[in-house]
Amino acid sequence: MNQPKQPMRSPSPAPEAMVETKDPSLSGLETRINQAGEALLQSFIRVIDQVPGGDAGPQRLAKELGIDKVLASRMLKAIRSPDAMSVVHRVPGPEPMRRVIKASSKLGVNPADIKEAGEAIDRFETLIRTEIGDRSALEAILSTWVPEARREFELRRKQSAFRAMSQLKGAQAEVYAECAIFWPSADGEHIDIVWIKSVFGLQRLRPGMRVKFTSHRAVEEGSGRRTYTLTGEPVDSVDSATLEQYCSTPAPKLEVQHAGEVMHYLLEPGGFGAQSAIDLVTCEVNRGEIPRYIPSSRNRKAWASSDINIPSRRMQFDVLVHKDLYTSGYPELRIYDTTILGQADINDPSREVDQLELLEGIENLGNGITRFGSSHVPRYRAMLGDVCTQLGFDPELLRGYRVSSDYPIYGSQTAMLFATQDRPER
């Protein structure tokens, strides 16, 4: 005979009463999902509370019920959820839950509680089948209301998209990293922008695939683009723009195609498969790239962006800004879908509809090169230090911002926006 024990949670009204309850803050399908979650929560609290060792953890529960530990863990997480929506996100499917109550019925659990739990499962299954479609569609709905569900939903879908695009494009990278350094130009009127582009673990998945990198300038005014290597030579041959000491050996060869404001870098033909994976780092120096002062009355933003044009498992985008530039406020993050209209000009209001609502955010790295480490880009601080030394920049005068993402969406543009500066009064 089971010994009485303290219930896991204070019991609420019976499931039937919960189904009839109307929460004025909810409506329609949201209400029905919430009610289904409450019914599952309350009925399974009663069932699991009567199972010997039900409050001792997933391993003991799995042993008592004769189920696997993963299922036991999911059930315990579900009944310990803070709200009904979280319960719906965490519970396993209807059939695994039926295995739980079938096993529980053999351990002396009250038959009335077993019956109520079975009815709650039936209502949950009917809701999914008749109103939602399947569990995947349910998770998409829950991602709007449950932060945990949204994180998992985004990651899984981005991972699926990565796999599909890798196969379609015939190439993928472990890490896609870009860094933009904003430094005052010598004339005091403009800003130099240094771009460091890195890909690590880049491999072709099929023979004969061409891999392309792109650098794109979008300015409202100014002369033609002036792009140089670290040694001050025009980027006509990008062999000299490759930071060979940070690339795989031998350093990959690139072909450059200059098209107006766009620079295309094409990786030389080569092998395919994991054994042919390469690491590649390039650096562009763009002198006088953008104006330093723009009147606030124009309501414009300065910005830099990273465009994901290679399917990658990880993205890192850093913007390092000289201490005297963009001193007003914290940067803003926007992520755009570029598949139809191409790279977005963030000052173009018509592109607002192309923004993607994702959970990524901007991390403040702090000031000085010692704060700019990376667990994804090898020898990152050393790389930044070498670039700054060759350009005569003091890296301690830089402050940094970073956006990181697992499985960044192919064809997306991640932009950091900065409030522009008025010309100082003399």
Describe the protein in words.
With 426 residues, this protein is of the alpha+beta class. The protein has 2 domains: 15-145, no CATH class; 171-419, Immunoglobulin-like, CATH 2.60.40. The chain is 31% helix and 25% strand. It is built from 10 helices and 13 strands. The chain has helices at residues 15-20, 28-49, 58-65, 69-79, 84-90, 94-105, 111-132, 135-142, 147-169, 380-391, and strands spanning 171-184, 190-204, 212-216, 227-228, 254-259, 262-267, 278-291, 301-307, 312-322, 332-337, 363-367, 398-406, 412-419. The strands form 3 sheets. It has a 7-stranded mixed beta sheet with strand order 4-7-2-1-9-12-11. It has a 3-stranded antiparallel beta sheet with strand order 3-6-5, with no helix packed on it. Strands 8-13-10 form a 3-stranded antiparallel beta sheet, with no helix packed on it. The model is unreliable at 1-26 (pLDDT under 50).
Topology (SSEs and partners):
Layout: H1 15-20, H2 28-49, H3 58-65, H4 69-79, H5 84-90, H6 94-105, H7 111-132, H8 135-142, H9 147-169, E1 171-184, E2 190-204, E3 212-216, E4 227-228, E5 254-259, E6 262-267, E7 278-291, E8 301-307, E9 312-322, E10 332-337, E11 363-367, H10 380-391, E12 398-406, E13 412-419
Parallel strand pairs: 1-9
Antiparallel strand pairs: 1-2, 2-7, 3-6, 4-7, 5-6, 8-13, 9-12, 10-13, 11-12
